[in-house]
Amino acid sequence: MSPGEMVRVYIRPDYGLEYEEEWREGLACYVLGQGVTNQGRGHSVNPAHLEHDNLFFRSKDEINFYKAALEVGLVMAPLPVIVQNGVDRKHRREPDFILFRDGKVVIVEIDSKFSHIETLAQTQERLQFLRNQGIEAIHIDSGKCRTLEDARNEVSRVVRAIEGIKPLTSR
What we know:
Helices cover 29% and strands 22% of the residues. By secondary structure, the protein is an alpha+beta fold. Strand 1 and strand 2 form a beta hairpin.
């Protein structure tokens, strides 16, 4: 297909399913590219599908961690896509969270066998290029964020861990 070539697109709703009343508006926004974001879309095989506060997440455990982190005023980037051209390949990675506090930057991974399709060793390899930049990684078992109260406890633990990390500017 060349630029400017006309293409026919057929959309046939399945009338056996229930649809939201605003499905046409949602489809129009999608086609027009409104609301398009790279947040939560770094993994083409496992895109984030849950939405909260106009952000995407892969699990309710991540949403609980996000809510708890907001409560204590942490500055964060949930599911950001980080890109770096390497000598041998392009690195395109998506940590669950990047947290910023007092000149310190940490990656937080909410490890789950349901929302992550990689092993802990694969996760560590995936994030190695960020650790090479001096960014620490903290791993949390998703079972410790099942409830908002549990997530609050984990956020407190993460904040304490961040206090022991040197700021990037002093490295």
